[in-house]
Design brief:
The protein is of the alpha+beta class. 26% of the residues are buried.
Length: 570
């Protein structure tokens, strides 16, 4: 075995052992909630052709599966809706971000990122991830580069990946064990494939083999090198069955987006909402199964018949069927026992369980979003404030663990199209993102999320400002000077951010300053023109005055002459 391949496989074996305690829980959730999901690739019987993955034998009521689908659709509608903007780019420096040229560049970058996400299949992948998060507490997808769509997304189901966390608790290591046909392996790696695989590609091209993909922080690298072998994250493909390295490379940014619904302590894997309501889900299935059994027995009960009928051709059990016999008297045949099942009360209990499961998956909130997609964040917050607050930690985790890495990875891919690592353009025809303004060279970009659920979380700040201005307004009427304490320009910016006002509506600070300067100058010029006009009118009046008759003007001139004579030195 290659020594380096051995090291990677030993590390994978440890990750596999660490995950075993979780697999029993996941298999339970697969059986009762998502029978078409889950792919435990660590086992030997996990080929893509394994039909056991779709076992629905434990599901008698589909409420949990349907409720989970609503949760996934609601999460997507509230966080990453493909029908409306759900993020915007800005800078940590608000004054710099308010400059017109900076705003224009940020909006241009936003537009290109939105287009790339739509073409790359992000929204379909995100829906799958949200469903996995709600059920298993973990979601994982890979964002790769594409010559046709710039980027492409591929979601993975629970069991396909093995995780490890870094010092800060974030997932920084992903091992993914998957199945490849011999033909696909040769097409991808050609002569790097083991001899067994190349031979298999000739005789049985569609026979499967296991391949391990490893992405983790690179232990040693040259930070001044742009080579793939010196990128921050190493990428290694290993033939698991042959224990040989197939290919090595690297990534500038982590290509796997791994998010969790909730975590306990220092656990690596997350816990989903379905785990909390799994007892209700199991009880619902048992009650549904019991009710079906009872209804079957009531409709077609087991029969009691005399043994003398055994050789007489059996008993006609079809509806309205009659079995004739002269033995045993008139009570020769009847039901074995009476089934007195309380169908009505059982149905009520089942209904209660269904409602509890729906509430456990936040269906009351998400159905509101899905049925009324034009609702504002204010309306969402007013109608479901308690539920929205409960979802707060989940929403924030998706922003930091799923959406932030996705936008960072997308920006990285788009930025380097047609450019060197240092940003120098080498192929202008491939450039996707425009060069930033000189003012923000090197400034970090900040992502703000403006989806309905994200906005609803931020409405608390806007409500606080509303209450503040309600208190200040009467004070300002009594003493206008108190308004000097307020920066109303900043207040408008805060309201615009909280209420998701389009950036084009609120003028940037530099443009506002120019407009105010122009208005002040125009007002000054108007005042000067008015003063000049008044002086000209006064002069004209004086020139037209009749000095031959006594009047106010002659009296004023006489007074001035008298004062002049009195002041003449002797």
């Amino acid at each position: 075995m290659d020594e380096r391949a051995r090291q990677y496989l030993e590390r994978f074996a440890q990750l596999k052992a660490d995950r075993q305690t979780w697999e029993t829980k996941w298999e339970d959730l697969i059986a009762y909630v998502m029978p078409r999901k889950g792919f435990m690739t660590g086992s030997t019987s996990s080929k893509p052709t394994d039909a056991a993955k779709n076992d629905t034998s434990k599901i008698f009521n589909s409420t949990a599966t349907t409720a989970l689908r609503r949760l996934a659709a609601g999460m997507q509608s509230g966080l990453t809706s493909p029908m409306q903007p759900w993020f915007r780019l800005t800078l940590a420096d608000a004054d710099l971000a308010a400059l017109g040229a900076v705003k224009a560049w940020l909006q241009a970058v936003e537009k290109r990122i939105y287009m790339a996400l739509a073409k790359g299949g992000f929204y379909a992948a995100a829906h799958s991830i949200f469903a996995e998060l709600g059920c298993f507490g973990n979601g994982c997808m890979f964002e790769g580069e594409s010559d046709t769509t710039l980027i492409n997304f591929r979601p993975f189901t629970i069991g396909e990946y093995f995780l490890a966390a870094g010092p800060n608790g974030d997932i920084d290591t992903v091992n993914r064990l998957t199945w490849w046909t011999a033909k696909s392996m040769v097409q991808e790696w050609d002569s790097a494939c083991p001899e067994r695989v190349r031979t298999l590609a000739q005789s049985q091209p569609y026979e499967y083999s296991r391949v391990l993909h490893i992405v983790q922080p690179r232990a040693q690298r040259n930070p001044n090198s742009a080579a793939a072998q010196d990128m921050p994250f190493e990428s290694v493909w290993v033939s698991y069955d042959d224990q040989e390295i197939l290919a090595e490379g690297g990534f500038r940014v982590m290509p796997y987006m791994v998010s969790r619904w909730d975590t306990t302590g220092s656990e690596v894997y997350g816990r989903g909402q379905a785990e909390d309501i799994l007892p209700d889900i199991k009880m619902l299935q048992e009650m549904e199964k019991t009710q079906l059994k009872a209804l079957h027995k009531m409709a077609d009960p087991p029969l009691l018949a005399p043994s003398t009928l055994k050789g007489m051709g059996g008993i006609n059990t079809f509806p309205s069927g009659v079995t004739y016999t002269d033995q045993g008297g008139k009570d020769a045949m009847g039901p074995l026992y009476q089934v007195n099942f309380d169908v009505q009360n059982t149905g009520v209990k089942i209904k209660e369980l269904e409602e509890r499961i729906g509430q456990g998956f936040f269906n009351d909130v998400f159905l509101m979003l899905l049925q009324q997609p034009n609702m504002t964040a204010t309306e969402v917050m007013e109608r479901s404030e308690e539920k929205i607050l409960m979802l707060g930690p989940v929403i924030e985790r998706q922003q930091t663990e799923l959406l932030d890495p996705t936008i960072s990875r997308t920006f990285d891919i788009l930025w380097h199209r047609g450019r060197n690592v240092d940003g120098t353009v080498v192929n202008p025809s491939e450039v996707v993102l425009p060069d930033p303004p000189q003012e923000i060279q090197g400034a970090p970009i900040k992502v703000e999320y403006i989806g309905l659920l994200s906005q609803a979380q931020r409405m608390a700040g806007a409500d606080g400002m509303n209450r503040f201005f309600q208190v200040v307004s009467p004070m300002a009427q009594m003493s206008p000077g108190v308004l000097d304490k307020l920066d109303l320009d900043k207040a408008i910016d805060e309201y615009a951010s909280a209420y998701n006002v389009p950036a084009e509506i609120v003028r940037p600070d530099d443009e506002v300053a120019q407009r105010r300067q122009a208005q002040a100058q125009a007002q000054q010029e108007q005042q000067q023109a008015l003063a000049a006009q008044q002086q000209a009118e006064t002069a004209q009046t004086l020139a037209q005055a009749d000095m031959s008759k006594p009047n106010a003007l002659t009296a004023m001139m006489a007074q001035q002459q008298g004062q002049g004579q009195q002041g003449t030195p002797q």
